[in-house]
Amino acid sequence: SAGCRQIQDLEIPCVEVDPCGDAQAAAEGAVLGLHEYNDLKQKKKPVVTPQLHGSAESEAWQKGVIYAEGQNLARYLMEAPANYITPIKFAEHIEQKLRSFSNVKVHIRPESWIATQQMGAFLSVAKGSAEPPIFLEIHYLGGANTNDPPLVFVGKG
User: What is the share, in percent, of the chain residues with pLDDT greater than 70?
Assistant: First the structure.
């Protein structure tokens, strides 16, 4: 990842990364190392695209890129200021990222829905903000066996 960052400083648009026996780890390191929150900076670093050197482990490389991009999305959402990533902007950003997956459904629930669900604790916490609360609901419909119980994640951010 340090080498990729140095390439970024040289403003070279693409770098080939030797997998060194573990293409997934190499991809994760390269993509994670190149992440930088630039949205509010006037001078943005150039985008550098890391690519696998050779093609023997392209499936493992792609898996590493996907894992790292997911972590970079979480980093982006965490590093953005609260007045920049408001609840609705957060929900819309996630909806846009997941739109291409046919087995994922996203529901953006407004304050009126939250009230009808009697989520009083959620609403009372949201009163501390000038922004209206949003409840983001994501349904993953991709389990191999439809009889398996669902896997559910609940979080408050």
Answer: 97
The residues, any chain, with a CB within 8 Å of residue 133's CB and separated by 6 or more, are 87, 111, 114, 122, 123, 126
Q: Which helix (H) or strand (E) segment is 17 a member of?
A: strand 14-17
The pLDDT assigned to 67 comes to 96
**Amino acid making up residue 112:** S
Instruction: Say whether 108 sits in a helix, a strand or coil.
Output: strand
**Assigned token pair, 99:** 């739109």
**Token pair in block for residue 140:** 């993953």
Enter the tokens of residue 109: 């629930």
What was the pLDDT predicted at 157? 54
Residue partners of 5: CB distance under 8 A and separation at least 6: 33, 34
